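Ligand-bound model needed. S-adenosylmethionine.
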Amino acid sequence: MSTQKNSFEGREGNWRKQKKVTHNICAVAQLGVNIMNDENKTIHEFDLELIWEYFSGIPRQGPGSPAETIKALGFIDKLTSDSQIVDLGCGTGGQTMVLAEHTSGFVRGIDLSPGFIDLFNVHAQKWGLQDRARGIVGSMDDLPFQKAELDVIWSEGAIYNIGFNRGLNEWRKYLKAGGYIAVSEASWFTKMRPAEIEQFWMDAYPEIDTIPNKVAQMQNAGYLPIATFVLPETCWTEHFFRPQVSHQKNFLEKHAGNRAAEELMANLRHEAELYRKYKEFYGYVFYIGKKIQT
Ligand SMILES: C[S@@+](CC[C@H](N)C(=O)[O-])C[C@H]1O[C@@H](n2cnc3c(N)ncnc32)[C@H](O)[C@@H]1O
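Prediction:
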């Protein structure tokens, strides 16, 4: 769908038929590493169903936390019970439920994975939010909205699928004047980085950039930059990596002897190790902007 190395290619109808993807999803994916296996294929040629199954079993599909979702929401004013909010690349809806609980408007979550959307709608029922929160299968590069229909576009750890710059530019038309965009995005904290982590990210997501450069992209795309803040380390360690420890063990037991599952787990562990080693050089940053003209 996009020119990014780590983006999906194709449409929803093809996903269930597709056995292998050369690109990836979620963190594996965004952080999909360039380890080579002995068949000289990149390790991120995983079975898409396997990846979806793995990420369906954890509360979130990328770094973040309820507290940081609420903090970002705090920069957005004038929401009412008529407000139209969408969460693009919502996954199973961890952050979308928080959004719906802390606003009174209508929240739609959009994701390519039908399995994630099924779980999203189960979660909305569990939270008693089914009248105001709905999950829809769809792609962020082909959105079903009218021009100037939306009050808020949200996307946590998912805009990379279309690319930060492209997403900001293409999605702007769906916002009303005065509407907000709030996205979290992998960003460099320093001007210079050790070669190992620089190379890893150039392979996974070359659009990663420094915070000032991302803010400039937001301004150039026609938004007033309202706020940026760095997600705390706990968004990775407690909310993303920790729930995976027992989940990985169970997943490997279930898929004993399945080489793709073993490689997927190895990739995820490598991702966590790199974060521990290089966390002062990169992380996720929330960017909040306001569309100030039509
Ligand atoms: C890193 S996960 C983040 C999920 C969730 N926002 C979170 O923070 O837990 C990225 C999500 O983007 C979804 N995705 C990938 N490409 C997409 C596309 N073209 N349109 C909509 N969703 C997409 C994936 O299925 C996955 O759920």
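The domain at 1-294 is CATH 3.40.50.150 (Rossmann fold).
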